[in-house]
Amino acid sequence: MATAHFTTVRLTAAQATVRWLSQQYVETGEGVVPYFAGVWAIFGHGNVAGLGEALHGARDVLPTWRAHNEQSMAHAAIAFAKQSRRERAMVCTTSIGPGATNMVTAAALAHVNRLPVLFLPGDVYASRRPDPVLQQIEDFGDATVSANDCFRPVSRYFDRITRPEQILDALPRALATMLDPATCGPATLAFCQDVQAEAFDYPEAFFARKVWRIRAPRPDPRELADLVALIKAAKRPVVVAGGGVLYARAEAALADLVSAAGLPLAETQGGKGSLAWDHPLNLGAIGVTGTSAAVAAAEQADLVIGVGTRLQDFTTGSRALFGAEGRKLVQVNVAPHDAHKHGATAVVGDARAVVEALAQALDGWRAPDAWTAEAIGGVAGWNAIFDAATAADDRPLPTDAQVLGAVWRASSDDSVVVCAAGGLPGELHKLWRTRRPGGYHVEYGFSCMGYEIAGAVGVKMAAPDREVHVMVGDGSYLMLNSELATSVMLGAKLIVTVLDNRGFGCINRLQAATGGAAFNNLLADTVHETLPDIDFAAHAASLGARSEKVASLAELEAALQRAKASDRTYVVVIDTDPAPTTPGGAWWDVAVPEVSVRPAVNAARADYEDKIKQQRTGD
Questions:
Q1: CB contact at 8 A, 116 and 86
Q2: Are 451 and 420 in contact (CB under 8 A)?
Q3: Residue 265 in contact with residue 241, Cβ under 8 Å?
Q4: CB 211, CB 19: distance < 8 Å
Q5: Are strands 199-203 and 8-12 parallel, antiparallel or unpaired?
Q6: DSSP-based three-state secondary structure for 209
Q7: What is the pLDDT of residue 29?
Q8: CA 420, 432, 113: angle at the middle one, nearest 5?
Q9: Comparing C-alpha atoms, which of 276, 590, 285 is closest to residue 427?
Q10: Contact 590/599 with Cβ under 8 angstroms?
Q11: What are the residues whose beta carbons fall under 8 Å from the beta carbon of 251, sequence distance 6 or more?
Q12: Which is it for strands 24-28 and 31-34: parallel, antiparallel or unpaired?
């Protein structure tokens, strides 16, 4: 019997990996492009000799960028993928040890937010010849464990490369996971450092250019029919748009559908921008950080149609918001895991495919006019709240909302606002008026402090022609600010507004709301010998940015104009009041101690016990 012959090329496992990565392409809304835009790398003894040498040889086709922190470079990669609507991704490689474990937080963020990124952390020696190698974790009862096992629960796909030929199987599996909208998320290939340098005769065919397509599955006709029947029977339907609307590029189809059918629509953090802020049927933000208009409609709705949302507790008001008698819930989602949540009627499919099919099936049907008018009638009242919250006044320190209003007025139609944890995402969700899709980039699935500046670098790399505004508190700035230097180094200009309320203002408010004493949140309430007087503007300047501190909202607006004209990243610092927050929003389940010596805690517990009676725990 004749033996088949095929051409091979002898490469190290690292060289073969890099060559394969550079040949992966994807069909996007803007044509066929390389799937991997580049590699973020901080080199160490676990990857510099293997992957470092390979990346240098491919730097013309697969660029490599150096960051200052492994977690933050991964945030940049993840933000790039989000801003690219999950159609493109980046790679992150680190050494063994702290370089690898520094990325675990970012991996969790990507996992929660369903965002693709490929992690290639260095790992121990597969041969075990020099064990224990520097930075190696030793499990006394399991010799197969390494620090990279931390990635297992926060990766959609995990493998450890212990032989060079394993990449023939592992790389395509990882990419298939990342590109499937139902499984999309981080993939980790823990790459043993000796194996990176080992050679193998790889088939030339493995390195042929491949163009991937992102699936857009159509719904099961039976599930679609169930949804159509529920909508036609509804008297008070509401649509909740999630991030899946934007990832599926379904915003235009959804706008056509709700306009034709008179369906009021509210937006999650991920779905904000699905409709322009001034669309007549846009009720604004939903849930705990929602507008009064959206929350009122949600409380009365007899049918809630989630499109591309995973129904996080902030969206559902901890399962207490959608509480009308006889209320029904439908979940349109490409991931069955999300479609079946909360006892929903599941419609599994791509958001745009489902919306387009639904539009055909509902042709000529409209929601009751009285309901549509009642739901959108609340928008005028919310607009009055917006005007009052964002207007300048003569108070000594401005609120977050007033600063946000000033930044929004200075921003352009094409601007992107970037934020993550603390009180700012709540204010932004309620108050930022998104003019076009992609203009709102807030990481609130993992609510990760430190994402803001690093993530904004990734946003700017994905959307270089758009103005990028970063809103960050002093707490998050102090946690992770090093990629300001990277933004200057790469020419990725950002406009950063630092709101200094001298501590963790958001959690301080939550502490007070649950009856707790002011303790360990604001700097004034910590154990200290001297309160720090931090000069954020000087610090930003030391990292290469242009910067200034302002003393009023008027000065802030003038400084933002200087920032817009600047040739590099510009940081504006302003002191703010940690106490005020914009009214509105649904209840959030934060467990209060059942017993306490503090009367305020006991009062908060009584209120909590009353609120939890409203939760729908059976679905």
A1: yes
A2: yes
A3: yes
A4: no
A5: antiparallel
A6: coil
A7: 82
A8: 35
A9: 285
A10: no
A11: 245, 273, 274, 275, 437
A12: antiparallel
- Kindly report each contact of residues 324-329 with a partner whose C-beta sits within 8 Å and lies 24 or more positions away, as own/partner: 324/236, 324/299, 324/300, 326/302, 327/301, 327/302, 327/303, 328/230, 328/234, 328/302, 328/303, 328/304, 329/303, 329/304, 329/619
- Pairwise CA distance, residues 369 & 457, whole Å: 45
> What 8-state DSSP symbol labels residue 133?
P
Task: Give me the pLDDT at residue 30, please.
Answer: 84
> SS in 3 state form for 485-553?
HHHHHHCCCCEEEEEECCECHHHHHHHHHCCCCCCCCEHHHCCCCCCCCCCHHHHHHHCCCEEEEECCH
Give the pLDDT confidence score for residue 589 in this predicted structure: 96
| Beta pairing class for 64-65 and 36-41 | parallel
Kindly report the number of other CB atoms within 10 A of residue 190's CB atom.
Answer: 26
Instruction: Find how far residue 56's CA is from the centre of its chain.
Output: 31
User: For residues 417 and 54, what is the distance between their CA atoms, to the nearest angstrom?
Assistant: 36
Measured CA to CA, the distance from residue 578 to residue 524 in angstroms comes to 12
What gap in Å lies between CA 454 and CA 279, rounded to an integer?
A: 32
Answer for the pair 348, 223: CB distance below 8 angstroms, yes or no: yes
Residue with tokens 């010799």: 143
- Taking only the tens place, the pLDDT of each residue in 226-264 is 999 999 999 999 999 999 999 999 999 999 999 999 999
Q: Is the dihedral of CA 266, 270, 274, 280 positive or negative?
A: positive
CA distance 323 to 586: 12
Write down the residue that tokens 């190290």 correspond to: 12
Residue 5 confidence (pLDDT): 67
Task: Give CA–CA dist 80/63, Å, rounded.
Answer: 15
For residue 323, how many C-alpha atoms fall within 13 Å in the half-sphere facing its CB?
18
Question: What is the reported pLDDT for 617?
Answer: 72
3-state SS string for 235-300: CCEEEEECHHHHHCCCHHHHHHHHHHHCCCEEECCCCCCCCCCCCCCEEEECCCCCCHHHHHHHHH
Per-residue DSSP letters for 296-362?
HHHHH-SEEEEES----HHHHTTTTSS--TT-EEEEEESSHHHHTGGGPEEEES-HHHHHHHHHHHT
CA 334, CA 347: separation in Å to the nearest integer? 8
Structure tokens at 380: 């005028």
Q: Which residues of the chain have pLDDT under 50?
A: 1
Residues in contact with 166: Cβ distance below 8 Å, sequence separation at least 6, in sequence order: 159
Spatial CA neighbour of 47 closest among 91, 96, 102: 96
Check the CA dihedral 425-429-432-436 and report its sign: positive
Q: Looking at the DSSP assignment, which residues form a beta bridge with residue 246?
A: none
Q: Under 8 Å CB-to-CB from 605, ≥6 apart: which residues?
A: 515, 592, 593, 594, 596
The pLDDT value recorded for residue 4 is 59
